[in-house]
Every structure is written in structure tokens, then in C-alpha cells.
């Protein structure tokens, strides 16, 4: 696919895709936060803590989409200045990878609870998971810092582009994609493989329940792959 075909594809498809994602994700995550804060405030176990952080990160990610919708609708022309370009690119990357890391944390939490239940009950507490959540936010912010540093507005013919990296920062871009997406994906995939293995070997679980768990795990991995991998693969291919 040529650069022209790629840009035409972006400008044709992305505004409508981002528009649908914005509406569905905004409503879904606001509802999720309401459930966590209002309905489950007295039952904040480790899963709820991680899920609440995931909802917050998804909501922050969604709030960066209107600018992108306008950007691609106007033929990849950025009119909001370099400061807002840097801010938007940083928030987009940071919130995207925070979501990836919390999905990873949720998968690891489920894996540990099933594989080592006594350890999980004794050592994995909501307070500890809250600390881990803060660490995730800090780590992802640090990983995403190069985006804020190198993001810039540049001229391309009659267009003004807002780019995260130029051709001189390929190493930084590859670093973010590998550690921000592919490493967490491998951890998530491995964790759910362990979950399936434990469930399939459990004689007290019926065959139907095993199939349901396996279907749920496969669905999560497929949704993860569809939601996050294409963007990062395209970013690497574009280097």
C-alpha cells in the first residue's frame, strides 16, 4: 500500500471509526465508573480496583478522539498549534498504553487467583493493587514521555501534520510500541493460557463451564488483538 493509499484510507475510515468509538466508549465507561463508585463502593476487591482504573484510562483515551476526528476529517490538517499537538499525542499514547497495562494486570490477577488461590487470598489485597495501579500510571507516563518530547507540527505540501515521531526517532517509536503493547500482550496471552490450563484440569468444573471459560478467554484475546495490535503494527510498518 502506497503512502497515498494509506492516507486516503485513514481520512476515509478513521473519522467514522473514531466517532463510533467515542460515543460507545464514553457511554460505556461512564456507566462502568458509576457502577464501580456508586454500586460497588463497599466491595472494592482487587478486580474492581483494576477495572476502575481501566475505565478511567479508557475514558481519558476517549476524550482525545474529538481532535483526531477533526484532524482526519480535514484531510490530516492540524490547526491547533504545536503545544496542543504535543499534548494530544502524549495523552493519546499514554492512555492507550495505560489501558493495555491494566488489561495485562487484570489477566495476571485472574491467573494468580486461579493458579495460586491461597497466595492470592493472603498477599494480594486491594491496598496493594492500588499501589500497583499508581505504579502502572507512572511507568506508562515515563514510557510515553518521548512522544511529548518529539511530537511536532510539520508541513507536508499544503497540509500541516501533527506527528508523534519523524524519521529521525524510529528507535524511540519502536521502543514505545514494543514495551507499551507487545510485551503486555505476551504477558496477557500467557496469563490466560494458564487460566485455561487450570480450568481444564479442574475435575470439579463441568465440561460446559470449561467451554464457557475457554470461549470467554478467547473472546478477550481476540478483542484485545483487534483493539490494540493493528495500531501498533501499522506504527512499526510506518517506521
Automatic annotation (TrEMBL):
Residue ranges constituting the G-protein coupled receptors family 1 profile domain according to the UniProt record: 28-239
Cell membrane is among the record's keywords: yes
Membrane protein topology class: Multi-pass membrane protein
Pfam families: 7tm_1 (PF00001)
Biological process annotations from GO: calcium-mediated signaling
GO MF annotation, one: neurotransmitter receptor activity
Keywords (A to Z) from UniProt: Cell membrane, G-protein coupled receptor, Membrane, Receptor, Transducer, Transmembrane, Transmembrane helix
Transmembrane spans: 17-36, 48-70, 90-108, 129-153, 173-200, 212-233
UniProt entry tagged with the keyword Kinase: no
PROSITE patterns from the UniProt entry: G_PROTEIN_RECEP_F1_1, G_PROTEIN_RECEP_F1_2
InterPro entries: GPCR_Rhodpsn, GPCR_Rhodpsn_7TM
Subcellular localization(s) per the UniProt record: Cell membrane
GO CC annotation, single: plasma membrane
Family recorded in the similarity comment: Belongs to the G-protein coupled receptor 1 family.
Protein's name in the database: Purinergic receptor P2Y11
Lineage: Eukaryota, Metazoa, Chordata, Craniata, Vertebrata
